[in-house]
Design goal:
With about 240 residues, the protein is mainly α. The chain has a domain at about 5-75 and about 140-230. Helices cover about 75% and strands about 0% of the residues. It has 9 helices and no strands. The chain is elongated and about 75 Å long.
Length: about 240
């Protein structure tokens, strides 16, 4: 996967830039970034920081995903094709099950009476479906929804890190101002950092969980529908691994 493809930019680089942004405050407060520095040097440092944080947010996002799914009652990709869910009409679910059976010889209907086994089979089926989509529909609408889901998942998982960095920025700027009130810029930046901490925590716990669930289910829905449409072309599939 290219470092500058749509998924990397939206799901990793954007949240990484957001999470690392409080670091700018103490850099300005202590004159570590100034107009005298070359644009190329500043740009290189910013890209390096964002690149490093992109790995951090991706790791946190993957680690937090099981807990998110549990809070939603299970993986969205499995939930939307379950009998109890109303996302798809019954005919669409049957068409999806038929496509899975025809392509991968996996019969979800045959294990419908065993909830645990069905969930395991459906999870494996969606793993294969993702691989199928990469092969046969690499530019489908599911890719955009997948990137949006990655963005919100990684942001939810790493918001605490943004708040922590903003807290450290508030302390590093506020202490010098407290000791010497003539350092007005330090005081202003400390207040900005405190505002960031409060805003991040409020958004993280009051807004983002609901947004994340909505986007996750939209991605699951579009992925299954894209798979159903792509399967009608009769493309061959492989059982290779996917992330």
């Amino acid at each position: 996967m290219s470092f500058f493809d749509a998924y990397e930019i939206r799901a990793r680089l954007m949240p990484a830039a957001l999470i690392a942004s409080p670091l700018v405050l103490p850099l300005f407060a202590f004159g570590l970034v100034s107009a005298s520095m070359s644009t190329a040097l500043v740009s290189a440092l910013v890209l390096l920081v964002i690149y490093l944080f992109s790995h951090v947010v991706a790791f946190l996002g993957r680690r937090s995903e099981p807990a998110l799914w549990e809070s939603w009652g299970g993986s969205p990709s499995v939930t939307v094709v379950s009998d109890a869910d109303k996302t798809f009409p019954g005919e669409t679910k049957k068409a999806i099950q038929k496509a899975i059976r025809d392509i991968y010889s996996m019969d979800l209907e045959a294990v419908a009476g065993d909830a645990a086994n069905w969930r395991e089979q459906a999870t494996e089926a969606f793993r294969l479906v993702r691989q199928y989509l990469r092969q046969h529909d690499p530019k489908g609408v599911w890719t955009s929804h997948n990137a949006e889901y990655g963005l919100i998942r990684n942001t939810v998982a790493s918001a605490w890190l943004c708040a922590a960095l903003a807290g450290l920025a508030a302390i590093s700027c506020g202490v010098p101002w407290w000791l010497d009130h003539t350092k007005g810029l330090h005081g202003v930046l400390a207040i900005v950092a405190v505002i960031i901490v409060v805003a991040v925590l409020v958004i993280r716990y009051a807004l983002l969980p609901k947004v994340a669930r909505s986007i996750a289910f939209r991605y699951a829905e579009s992925a299954w529908l894209c798979f159903l449409n792509a399967s009608k072309t009769g493309g061959k599939a492989t059982k290779g691994g996917g992330d």
